[in-house]
Design a protein that fits this description.
Blueprint: E1 3-7, E2 10-14, E3 21-29, E4 32-34, E5 38-46, E6 51-55, E7 61-65, E8 71-76, E9 81-90, E10 93-94, E11 96-104, E12 123-130, E13 134-135, E14 140-147, E15 149-155, E16 161-167, E17 170-174, E18 181-188, E19 196-203, E20 211-218, E21 222-223, E22 227-235, E23 237-243, E24 249-255, E25 258-263, E26 268-277, E27 283-291
Parallel strand pairs: 3-10, 4-11, 13-19, 21-27
Antiparallel strand pairs: 1-2, 3-5, 5-8, 6-7, 6-9, 9-11, 12-14, 14-17, 15-16, 15-18, 18-19, 20-22, 22-25, 23-24, 23-26, 26-27
């Protein structure tokens, strides 16, 4: 989006933010075609631009995931008339421009003026998804915005389809099991209008960070010369060093919780320390009370 700065005697147009592209032109070739013929609509501008929304003026509007501008898409107009084509940048791309195309009736048909457009009783105006990218095993919220009561299908792109009839706007939650790109289609049934096609990237779930959380001692107190059970608790697989407090230590790597044994021959109080090694995180301590026979209580 451009910013207009007013200075007496001057009109300044501020540049768009760094890292955002702008749609500056939309063209159609040919700009006159017989009904049933194919035209090429080209959206041009500056990059980066990851999505372009094209409204063809005949009830069809599609958001295309692209790698950059310019981008060309073919379209067929079935009926004669003059249609306004709008190209709009989305995501990291802004700007909106229009052009027009004239569609004539085939020679075998008597030329007739197109009927006046009938405003739809209900219309889908936008489809938003969050979070993007989605993550495997975590719900993605799909918001269908618009007005009126609409009957439509939601194709999630993984083989699942949901039939919906209700008052817009509405929201749905869907969970994907495999990391890949999914084409999500919202397809209304007449008289509701406004079909949308969106591409959703789903990535693998973020792995849990391995971490040491605490050290448990059992039994406590313990008789000197008898083994004590030491449990290092936490999450993930962790490399760490354990200091027994009696001058002995040990380096280990194990899935947590990790259980080990140690014997304290002499009575005394010992501090056990478990220190994680990168990339594992955390440090935990516990005290061992080793007593002579007859002083366990």
């Amino acid at each position: 989006m451009h910013l207009i700065l007013m200075i007496p005697g001057f009109l300044l147009l501020a540049a768009p933010p760094v890292g955002a592209g702008t749609v500056t032109r939309v063209s159609v070739a040919p700009d006159k075609v017989v009904a049933g013929g194919t035209v090429a609509v080209t959206v041009s501008g500056t990059n980066p631009c990851g999505a372009a929304h094209i409204t063809y003026g005949d009830g069809e509007a599609v958001t295309y995931a692209i790698t950059g501008l310019p981008y060309t898409q073919n379209h067929v107009y079935a009926r004669a008339g003059t249609y306004t084509i709008t190209g709009r940048g989305m995501g990291n791309c802004d700007g909106e421009v229009t052009t027009s195309v004239t569609v004539t009736a085939p020679p075998s048909q008597a030329p007739q003026p197109p009927p006046p457009p009938t405003p739809p009783s209900a219309q889908i105006s936008a489809v938003d998804m969050a979070p993007t990218p989605g993550r495997v095993g975590e719900p993605v919220t799909i918001a269908v915005n618009g007005s009126g009561t609409c009957t439509y299908e939601v194709h999630y792109g993984d083989g699942n389809v949901q039939d919906v009839t209700g008052q817009l706007p509405q929201q749905f939650r869907h969970t994907y099991a495999v990391p890949e790109k999914y084409t999500v289609i919202v397809k209304p049934s007449p008289p509701c209008a406004g079909r949308f096609t969106q591409v959703l990237q789903v990535v693998s779930a973020q792995p849990q960070q391995a971490r040491i959380s605490r050290v448990l001692i059992s039994p406590s107190p313990v008789l000197a010369g008898q083994p004590v059970d030491i449990t290092v608790e936490g999450a993930g697989t962790c490399g760490y060093t354990i200091e027994y407090g009696d001058g002995n230590d040990e380096s280990r790597s194990a899935a947590l919780p990790d259980r080990l044994r140690h014997v304290y021959p002499a009575a005394g109080r010992y501090e056990v320390v478990a220190r994680a090694s990168a990339p594992c995180l955390g440090e935990a301590r516990a005290r061992v009370d080793a007593r002579r026979e007859g002083r366990r209580r």
